[in-house]
Design brief:
The protein is an all-alpha fold. The chain contains 4 helices and no strands.
Length: 99
Amino acid sequence: MVVYHLSQTKDTREYLGTIQAFFCLCSAVTLTSRAVQGLLTVELLPTIAMGALLMLASSQLAGRLVAKLDVTVVRTLTYVVIGLAGLYNAVISGMALMG
């Protein structure tokens, strides 16, 4: 989804807003689903609140950083991070298969 949104937006601010809205919606759906299934307990509420605060703070930080970056820099960094994550997953999966 990250690559799709990256390809469909014109500038870094539009990309950041789109991807933040996407992940916010996904988080809300996941949280609601877990609450309905009874997996969300009162003990988890402080952790959830901390996570929400950190997400808001990181969104503010990202907004300031992205405003200073060119769209090609953001695209390059995004592709590098996705590539490294894929490589990491391939190595971990390969190690798990080997024993």
